[in-house]
Amino acid sequence: MGKVQDLRRIIKYNKSLEDVLQQYEVPYVRMYHGTTRPIEAQIGRGRPALLVTCIPAQDSVVKLIIQPVGMFKLTSIQDVPEILLKQKLHQFFKEIV
Question: Domain range spanning residue 26?
Answer without folding.
Answer: 3-96
